[in-house]
Amino acid sequence: MRIFFYNNVRIFNIYSKQRHLKCTPSRFTAKSLVAFLLHFAFISFAQAQNCGSISPYPCSSLKASLPFELEFYNPVANTIQDSNNLGTGFTMVQNYSGTRLAQDGLPTFSNIPGYSKYNLRMANGRLHITSGKGLSFLNSNNQINALGVQVDTYNKIEIIAYITNPFNGNEDQQAGIWFGLNDKTYLKLNISANKIELRKEVNDLSTKTPGSKNPDQRVTGTISGLEAQNVGLKLIIDPVSNTASAFYTVDKGSTYTNVGAGYPAPALNISDMGLTNTSVYTGVYASYRNGASPVVYSFDRFQIKKSLQFDLSAYNFELADNAALNTVAGTVKATATDGSTASYSIISGNSNNNLSINSGTGQIVVSKKLNYHTQSVYNLKVLAAAGQLKDTSIVKLNITPGQTMPDFNGISWGTTASQPYKISEAQGEVVNNKLYSFGGFDSQKTTFTPTKRAYKYDPVTNKWTSIADLPHTPNGEGFGGVTHAGITNDGTDIYMAGGYTSHSSGTGQTFGVQQVWKYNVAANTYSKLPDLPIRIAAGQLEYLNGKLYHIGGTNAARTQDLGNNYELDLNNLAAGWKTRAPLPNPRQHAGSAVFEGKIYYIGGQRGHDSQLVTSKDVHRYDPASDTWTKMANLPAPGNNGLGHISSSVVIAGNRIIVFGGEAVQHASTNMVSAYSPATNSWTSLSPLPQARFSGVAALLNGVLYYTGGSKTNSTFKGIPVSMANTRSMAASFAPDGLNASEPFSVKKMTVFPNPAVNNTVNLQLENFGINEKVKITVTDSFGKIIQQENCTTNDKGIADISFVPKVSLSKNTYMIKAETATGSCMNKLIVP
After folding, report:
1. DSSP strand pairing (389-400 vs 314-320)
2. Which domain holds residue 225?
3. Can you state the percent helix, strand and coil of the chain, rounding each to 5?
4. 202 bridge partner residues
5. How high is the pLDDT of residue 731?
6. Which of 287, 306, 325 is the last residue of a domain?
7. Are 39 and 64 in contact (CB under 8 A)?
8. Rounded to whole angstroms, how far apart are CA atoms 209 and 216?
9. Cadherin domain: from which residue to which, for each copy (predicted)?
10. CATH code assigned at 433
11. CA–CA dist 635, 53 (Å, integer)
């Protein structure tokens, strides 16, 4: 038979015979029964989950997140319980290393020796501790109910506890704050006999000599009337100076008095205690020590906070990727308890320095163009510093897609300004809605020789402008440049890796180099980056999460197709290129794109010249898992694949678009195909006006472009359209007064993209008079003129015009009218 007692009431007689249980109730109340069941459940939990001998909870749950505060009004789940099974908020009870005093009875649970729950009672915003006789002092280590939490000490912290009407006795009765590793090495800040004492003990050693020269004690004189006050104790731990300072207040924290004010060194040196830059325990305790009977101490608050503390340990912000430079993503703030001003910096997670922080205000701002596809989340670690005070916080910035291009199933192709020279195998990228084209084979030479010429195309002015020559070596008067280089951009600058470079003779080419260059768009200059591990050409280069990835290609001897995958961290250039999982089907002359954080390696070829075999394979690379996945095949003529598309792939809305390509040697295609990552499927779009390969494709202000390739310099301009809406988009009106029986060409205006994608308005006028002056007027739905522009048609009666409205266009339907002396036409622009 086993008899269970709860609060001195016999609850159950339990009989056991041959593994059968019989439970018979004895005298109890319903309230006693509920309390017993909770008590019994707590015992079971403690036995199953306890953290050693100090807690009934897992060790991982003991640490306090700062700021930490207990006010003892409401119970806290999964914390040390009082006599009424209310969670006190503390997560552990310090164990004792000595022998428990008989006056303190038996522990509530044998596996947590220092815990006596019936000495704890939480009520009306106070935690009442009926003190035990035991105490941790020198080799007398038998303190019970030293309640606490685990805390990190990498930053300067403050521990505060308030005690209401502390007992004034002369038998070492005391209560206060404890802070330490165990009951042998600790600090105690307590109230005893109306004095405030800070005491240090290391491995059961502490100097007892009284006076100002005691290195282990700071104590005040007797403070009259302290027993009638709400006394606040503050313990400050400084890991930089390795000191502990003690203060007290009797006016709710308005003023604090330094406990060590009368000492040559007010703070204690704790450098020999192992309490800083680690994890320790801290909390409250009480003891009646040499007194004749227990004393009840009432704590009405317990706090732990950093001396410099961020308002939040983690911030969450969100920003669209079309946010302008210097847009504020969010603001962090840290407050110092001494009133000093914090300065801020980003210490990690700032991929490619795309963001910056105002050191004075804590505003996190956009410093480079963001792109949802190349990085959708930034996890920044932000530092606040005020003198020697420091704190860190995590900022999670989620990047969302800005205005996205709507799906389309057709392209209305035309032509626009040609490049200055015919070109093939050039490399191209788009930055700030301008197309940059670099190198390629020099059409001014009779051999396959790279050129160092580079150009920028502006769709607004419809002009190509030369930019700084390529820096690839060898380089000199009449020679230099590159073809077959991998190329990518980070939204601000452009990168090139590998390729074929010019011979120093000015004719011919070198198959494969290790050179990597960065084109600084704003400065129109180049910077050298770490070389690739091997000589390589015809591979693909992509930017993702602050890193460059060079994938595939061919070796310098052109005898081997490569699947090599190299990664360069732009925030750690000194580390150089690292090897990642190789491309499953090694190949070169492919296309690629980054979509929603993954790299798509599209098509390509094996072998060269008459021996080349093109591929339909599409593989997706996930840098997070360093794995490749086979995706739906690329559409291509017959059984062939497509190669020579290295700069002919763009992202348009929710799809990846591939333009042209080479199916077999010297046989190009005009196919245009759209891949949907969401459905892993391909759709055919309106083909290019001519078959092309090795050209450069771009999406500028919602308009598609394909320039050069196949030894040409012409540029195709494609307006995305939805076939079902083609008629409405091409809506036009006949000139006033024209005889309906007379033959005429209807003036036509196309507005694109429509609905609008960004703030740029693009128009194409057709069937107007030759070199005819046209006035463009934009009005809102109420007829109010928003803007007027002027243009002149070319010798074919065509005009292309792009302009940015002087005022931002709000959600509305706008009318655009093109007027000339011979008539007009109109169309709508929808701003969603």
Report:
1. parallel
2. 50-306
3. 5, 45, 50
4. 205
5. 26
6. 306
7. no
8. 9
9. 311-408
10. 2.120.10.80
11. 67
Residue-level pLDDT at 831: 86
Residue carrying the six token digits 């282990």: 216
Q: Which of 721, 741, 773 represents a domain boundary (last residue)?
A: 721
Q: What is the DSSP letter of 55?
A: B
Task: Please give the Cα distance from 4 to 541 (Å, whole number).
Answer: 74
Pairwise CA distance, residues 141 & 95, whole Å: 9
Length of the chain as a residue count? 832
**pLDDT computed for residue 25 by the predictor:** 44
Q: How far apart are CA 539 and CA 434, in angstroms?
A: 24
Buried b / exposed e over 133-170, threshold 16 CB at 10 Å, is: bbbbbeebbbbbbbbbbbbbbebbbbbbbbbbebbbbe
pLDDT at 49: 52
Structure confidence at residue 132 (pLDDT): 98
pLDDT of residue 37: 45
Closest CA to 669 of 697, 652, 690, 686: 690
The answer to whether residues 381 and 294 belong to one domain is: no
Q: Are 659 and 697 in contact (CB under 8 A)?
A: yes
Local structure of residue 45 (DSSP, 8 states): H
Cα–Cα distance, 580 to 176 (Å, whole number) = 57
In angstroms, the CA 566 to CA 573 distance is: 13
From CA 361, how far away is CA 357, in angstroms rounded?
A: 8
Contact 830, 813 (CB under 8 A): yes
Neighbours of 427 (CB within 10 A): 25
Q: Could you tell me if residue 726 is inside a domain?
A: no
Phi, psi for residue 215 in degrees, rounded to 5: -80, -10
Q: CB-hemisphere CA count at 13 Å for 664?
A: 6
With beta carbons less than 8 A apart as the criterion, state whether 308 and 334 touch.
yes
Both 146 and 185 in one domain: the answer is: yes
Read off φ and ψ for residue 51, nearest 5 degrees: -95, 90
Within 13 Å, how many C-alpha atoms sit on residue 472's CB side? 34
Domain count, the chain: 5
What tokens were used for 566?
A: 């190299």
CB atoms within 10 A of CB 559: 9
Mean pLDDT, 10 residues at a time, the chain of 832 residues: 38 37 43 44 47 95 96 97 98 97 95 97 98 96 98 97 98 98 98 98 94 95 98 98 98 96 97 98 98 98 97 96 97 96 98 98 98 98 95 97 89 96 97 98 94 98 98 95 98 98 93 98 99 98 99 98 98 98 99 99 97 98 99 95 98 98 94 98 96 98 97 96 47 29 60 82 89 91 85 90 87 87 84 83
Q: For residue 288, what is the domain's CATH number?
A: 2.60.120.200
The three-class DSSP label of residue 35 is helix
Q: Which two tokens stand for residue 167?
A: 């007992």
Query: Residues 487, 625: one domain?
Result: yes
Q: Is residue 557 part of a domain?
A: yes
pLDDT for the residue 730 = 32
Query: Residue 354 sits in a domain of what CATH number?
Result: 2.60.40.60
Residues 283 and 146: their CA atoms lie apart, in Å, by 7
- Give the per-residue pLDDT at 813: 81
Residues 749 and 699 in one domain: no
Is residue 405 in some structural domain?
no
237 occurs within a structural domain: yes
Contact at 8 Å (CB) between 313 and 171?
Answer: no
Write phi, then psi, for 38 (nearest 5 degrees).
Answer: -65, -40
Q: Domain holding 756: CATH number?
A: 2.60.40.2550
- The 10 Å Cβ neighbour count of residue 551 is 27
Same domain, 43 and 102: no
Give the pLDDT of residue 679: 98
Instruction: With H, G, I as helix, E, B as strand and everything else as coil, classify residue 102.
Output: helix
Three-state helix/strand/coil letters over 296-329: EEEEEEEEEEECEEECCCEEEEEEECCCCCCCEE
301 and 323 belong to one structural domain: no
pTM of the model: 0.77
Q: Looking at 91-215, list the stretches that DSSP marks H as alpha helix, in order from N- to C-terminal side.
A: none
Identify the three-state secondary structure at position 440.
Answer: coil
Same domain, 571 and 669: yes
